[in-house]
Amino acid sequence: MYIFNATMQANLSDSRSSKCIMKITLKLALLACSIISTACAVGPKYNSPTTQTAPEWYAALPHNGKTTDLVNWWQSFSDSSLTRLQQAAELNNPSIAQAVARIDAARAASGATNGNMLPTINGSASQTRNNGDDGSDIARRSRLGMIDASWEIDLWGGLRAGRRASDAQLAARTMEWHAARTSIAAEVAQTYVAYRACQAQSAALQSDVVSREETARLTDLLVHAGFNAPAESYLTDASAATGRQQQVAMAAECDLSIKSLVALTGLSESETRDILAKNAGIQPRAPEFTLAALPVDIISQRPDVAAAERTLAAASAQINVTQAARLPRLALLGNISFFGIQLSGGAPQASGKSWSFGPSLSLPIFDAGQRAAQADIAKAGYAEALANYKQVVVSAVKEVESTLITLDAAQKRLRDAHTAKDKFDKYFNASLARQRVGSVSLLELEDARRNKLSAEQNLINLKREYTTSWIALYKAVGGAWLTQTQQS
């Protein structure tokens, strides 16, 4: 690189030099402003990509609720246990903490990049003492003070592009934080709903075990009285044992859900169990909301899509930075120095002040292709960011469509599941009454019991699936981060 300096120097010992400095400084400042105002940017101009989505959703849309319900959607559950768990996750979850740290790093990087647009000033001072080399006691003390200033003129928009890139990265990190918060809140809610469903399943199994054991007790009495064959006692005892092992397995599953909540919230297990002790056995029901008809409106409000778009904007600006680095650079340099020499025991032997001020032009002549390679890297980074943006959009559409299908199916199945449970309950009660008078065999009773338990478990699972589908849909449409950001 070739550097050309054109500086003016003067001695500051008289007033005429001081006036000269002021005039020259003013002229150069005006020249710098003129250069900045006429500077031209190099590189591509960024335009936000169009979100390519279908004109309408193929899956059926829910029709209940309101879109505005997303703002305070979690509070609409009216479940204090869920609220406390989500608040704890907001404070303690490592994924959210990592997102906050990335925001802090991006903010610091943005501040450093913005500082490149302003002048830099550095100062230095030194003092030396030398004894005479002729053996005398006379010593010489030298003092030097210096102030250097430099200001790079953004001729080609490279510094401005760097500022745009860092600002876009900061925005992307902030949106990733919103995405992390939405994702963690949904994961906590889904795990909580699964735990409540597990509690309901455990209660159903406990009731079933009590019924099986009572049937086994009554059958044993009949066998001992000689009214029933011993084989029937074997059947009822086996049925009771089967019910107990199913209950133990379900209890273990509930404990695993608690472990998951501990990991998500950062609370101790005792704190988590205390929170879960409230509203025990009650399966939460998600409040419903309505989606906008146009997919582009839904996809554009997702924080991960917005983050991918801002990352793409940063990559585009980085191309401008690398292309500007291949062109000449102009800077204004200034220097003021003060010096003095003093002999021991005497007045200053010599002192003075000097200054220099002028432009510095650096011309890139040969760098073995390094700058061109950096520009190619930036272009490849933009192509990667564009492909990632398209992939995020495709995945977002798939997530919403899949969740809508699951939700619609769960809603339709739920109605029939209620009917099935009600009918199988009645059928089992009738079979039990008939078995006690000998009109129905134990095999028929156990078959009715299995149908009853299966219908009850299926209803519990469908309630869980229906609620978690709404939670998944809330996450798929981006939650309420956009509204929260606008309000703040």
UniProtKB/TrEMBL annotation:
Subcellular compartments: Cell membrane
Keyword Membrane: yes
Signal peptide per UniProt: 1-41
SUPFAM superfamilies membership: Outer membrane efflux proteins (OEP)
GO cellular component: plasma membrane
Primary localization class, coarse: membrane
Pfam families: OEP
Keyword entries, A-Z: Lipoprotein, Membrane, Palmitate, Signal, Transmembrane, Transmembrane beta strand
The protein, known as: Outer membrane protein OprM
Species whose genome carries this gene: Ephemeroptericola cinctiostellae
Lineage per the UniProt record: Bacteria, Pseudomonadati, Pseudomonadota, Betaproteobacteria, Burkholderiales
